[in-house]
Amino acid sequence: MAKQQQAIQAIRGMHDILPEQSPYWQWLESQARQVLAGYGYQEIRLPIVEKTELFKRSIGEVTDIVEKEMYTFEDRNGDSLTLRPEGTAGCLRACLEHGLLHNQSHRLWYYGPMFRHERPQKGRYRQFYQLGVETYGMPGPDIDAEMILLSDRLWKRLGIRDMVELQINSLGTSDERLAYRGTLVEYFKQHLHLLDEDSLRRLETNPLRILDSKNPEMQAMLQQAPVLLDHLGAESLAHFDSLKATLDDLGIAYTINTRLVRGLDYYGKTVFEWVTERLGSQGTICAGGRYDGLIEQLGGKANHAIGFAMGMERILALLELLETVPVAASVDVFMIRVGSAAEAAGMRLAEALRDQLPQLKLQVNCGGGSFKSQFKKADKSGAEYAIVIGDDEAARGEVALKPLRADQEQLTLDHSQLLQFLRDRHQPSSL
Predict the structure, then answer these.
(1) Is 116 among the annotated ligand-binding positions?
(2) Which residue from 59, 69, 307, 337 could staple onto 342, CB 3.0 to 4.6 Å apart?
(3) DSSP letter string, 373-411
(4) Would the CA dihedral through 379, 382, 385, 389 be positive or negative?
(5) Helices (H), 218-300
């Protein structure tokens, strides 16, 4: 007797999305698509694998992502390739490669899995899904505001707006940050005894990121640190003031978080995050900012760019806290067939119904079984109605239509009456 092989399990931190979970993903994705379409954004589909050099140049070689978290490998040609840890670099690479930034402006979005070798925990996975939105060629604070308005509209549509808070800040220009960086480093050097190991490492390479630290023992010291907004010039302040004025005019509440920074120098002026207290330590569900400097860093001509990315798993975790999410059943009608004549007649009828009602989600029982066992499947499917065909019904060209979710009488209908009933009274729901 052959030895049974040991079952293979999914890679740690990479999770399956099971059939009962998929409708929630599909509903979230459909809501996002509709909101993006409402603002005139176009989808771009990008490779999952890129050259490693792309991320080294965009994210930075001394970052945790590049040093510790990327899934990098050599292909058969000896080229170093990486599973994308984020989407911005690939989107910008595609725009530069295909000449989309030459005297043009674009509003783009993409969606799909990203990969980082992090310690898995709730809301943080090694394969995770992001929806990213990027715009190019628009320098003013109006497009910054539109980014925030778009995301705000999505939260309202999902029913989670009261669970999230908008935080904004301005990083100014590279020269303004350089001057501020020197002031900040001097401040931290006066408090070296309070810095943890991570912060000491960042002191020389990425001191602004120290402001992001969640270490409770450092919070009092960080609260007293110099503030970047105090080091901005007139142009940067005017840009930020215009953004705030637009948000105020449209009634979008926000908090100015002076410790909201980005560790990479190509970010400048507007940065923003949507945060929640409902998910523990994984409180950021959406983060964005202006990154004009990255275009030249990747070989393009100087231009303007701002974007954001949202973590789909974290948004779904918020949706789980709602009492109801309007997710459609995966099946509208379930067909029960018992008898050889009924099986053939039922399959013909099902195809005819699909021809006439292409939006109808009709599942036909396959694999046989008694009326009782098939009714159990029909009930489990979530269908609103069961179409029942035995050999007698097949001979008469009729069906029994049984409501499964309402206390109503079972109907006997011929095929034309069934079609009319489904067309007139049952409105198929769609994602």
Answers:
(1) yes
(2) 337
(3) HHHHHHHHHT-SEEEEEEHHHHHHTEEEEEESSS----E
(4) negative
(5) 219-223, 234-249, 293-297
Q: Is 88 annotated as a binding residue?
A: yes
Residue 311 assigned to a binding site: no
pLDDT, tens digit (0-9, with 9 covering 90-100), for 24-68: 999 999 999 999 999 999 999 999 999 999 999 988 776 777 878
CA distance 65 to 67: 6
- Distance between start and end Cα atoms, the chain: 49
0.85 surpassed by pTM: yes
Element (H, E) at 109: strand 106-115
**8 A C-beta contact, residue 284 and residue 273:** yes
Strands annotated E in 257-347: 270-275, 284-290, 305-311, 333-338
283 in Cβ contact with 163 (< 8 Å): no
Establish whether 87 is an annotated binding residue: yes
Q: Is 136 annotated as a binding residue?
A: no
417 annotated as belonging to a binding site for a ligand: no
